[in-house]
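Quick entry between incubations.
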Amino acid sequence: MTTLAFNLFLRQRRRIAFWVLAVVGVGLMALPFLPVLIHGPASLEEQGAKAALAGAGCWLAAILALLLAVGLSQGSVSQDLSRSTVHLVLVRPVSRRQYMAGMFLGSALTSLSLYLAFALTCWLGVAVCVQAHLLGTLMALVVLAVPVLLITLLVTLLSAWMPGSAAGIIGYASFIFGLFSGTLEEVAEKLHPFWGSLIRGVNLISLRLDRVFGLAGNIVEGNAVSWWPLAWEAGYAFVVVLLGIMLFERRKV
Amino acid sequence: MRYGENWALRDLDLEVFRGEVFGFLGPNGAGKTTTLKLIAGLMRPVAGRTTIFGEDSLDPTSHRHVGYAPEGPYLYENLTPEELLGFFCKLQGIPGGQRESEVTWALNAVGLLEARRLRIKAFSRGMKGRLALAQALLGRPPLLLLDEPTAGQDPLARMAIRDLILWYKERGGTVFLSSHILTDVERICDRVAIMNRGRLVRLGSLEELGSGDERLVVEAAPLHPSFMEELKRRGREYRLLPEGVEVKGVSRDEVPELARVLVEGGSRLYGLHLQGRELEEVFVEAVEGDGGDHPGL
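Done. Structure below.
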């Protein structure tokens, strides 16, 4: 399983796109901190402004990683299937479960390595420019790794059953839907009961990214937090992996 | 085995013996690749089972006996051959200390040792085909499943691949070779199966498939009438050639007697060649006799 995972990670790292996205992402991560670097820490006198900047850094790191994770994971399994490379793997003493688990792990390694680069940039930015909320920022960044992992696993699962482009489109749709799941719930309250129930039903399987982002924001600000959104995301990720491995067992290759 | 309403394979009962090179022929859509996938454990049959040296091919542990080179696979092009084969060695379970020598051996066997550190994306189609063969050789499995290994190769590479297959056989290996290149099959295979529309239509050694219908090419001049009368008496069809005559349906035992009639009749005999039917003829007859090569039943 780890052999497959590290092979996928190596192949992703050999792509020029990986490094271009990493460099552009790190550059974008520096943007929120630029005004402070130019005007000096005095421009962040208010405690609220410091927390807001640290929170914005965390938010940006996660959003960038989520966006890139979809793009990098969408072809992980579908390319192996469409180009018959999977045959060269499965003809060896490798079970389908091991193959799928390896693909999940490899995709996760790729996405999380990018996220790590963005998170480090964010934390350094907070350390240099904000000079406060360092522990909170670190914890928030760790928490935000979970939705990055979840969307990576989801897109990897999808790519085992559909072309990479379709997996990517659904992945981005899930990302947007997950970001606005709270808003959708509010809208559902005001709609006709049928449409309201429909939206609430669909919302049950949404990624609920807004809740995790809210949790991360509270951690940075030092507010009391509920860990349920994180547990929900972790449970969702577990189900995705389990489902992916079980379904691939019966997949025609 | 079926795809939707069409049967890709039907009633296939086939045994390949240890240590033989087995040719697997058929027109496009005959079910050759499906059969290879079944043997490799990549597909689940609707009914029946496939075993490799007594183990169910769907069991991944049986795969340690198999090397599979599909036709024109995509090999991870961002890697070098060394990295790719190293990866497959790990999957194959080859111990770390042996991996490097195994990779070097496999690359050398297919003539790619000097290109071991180039990215695969820079390879030609023929080189990629040989690399696909190299990955099948890793761990030197007792059974090799090869799907068109000589397709797209230049004559020298084709010869080298044929020699490699024969070398593998000499070491006790079994090779299941699917190919459209009948001359390759004629040169290296012990037995041949011909598939059409998902069914097995011929099976046997090359001699068995071509027997009973040998042709005798007689190079002689002049052809004495007594010889021609003898052919008519024996009911043999013949065709005149610039250098003599080609007689159909001659058995090996008849040759000395025909040569005697020819010489005693006063003809000068320059040569006698008894030829079996070419595999191409057997193939065409088998496929056309089965109602053509339209896939799907």
